[in-house]
Amino acid sequence: MKVVVDPDICLGCGVCESIAPNIFILGDEVYAKVIMNPVPEQLRDVVEEAVSECPEEAISIIEDED
Ligand code: SF4
After folding, report:
1. Which CATH number is associated with domain 2-62?
2. What is the C-alpha to C-alpha distance for residues 9 and 13, in angstroms, rounded to an integer?
3. Which end of the chain is more exposed for a tag (fewer CB within 10 A), N or C?
4. Is 15 in the pocket of ligand 1 (CB under 6 A)?
5. Cα dihedral sign for 57, 59, 65, 66?
């Protein structure tokens, strides 16, 4: 799967980074960036947690085509 953050919606709160710092990074930016793409299937649970905890619903999962 791929994970995307919509920079127009993201608040830069850092919740996703605190849940999955190996996938999301805030750094000096005002919005989160995804630093792991594609994201392996075994990390789906933590990605879904970030999706559900994001206060702005800025994180989307793009499923692989098969
Ligand atoms: S949790 Fe959502 S709003 Fe907060 S930094 Fe991550 S993507 Fe942005």
Report:
1. 3.30.70.20
2. 11
3. C
4. yes
5. negative
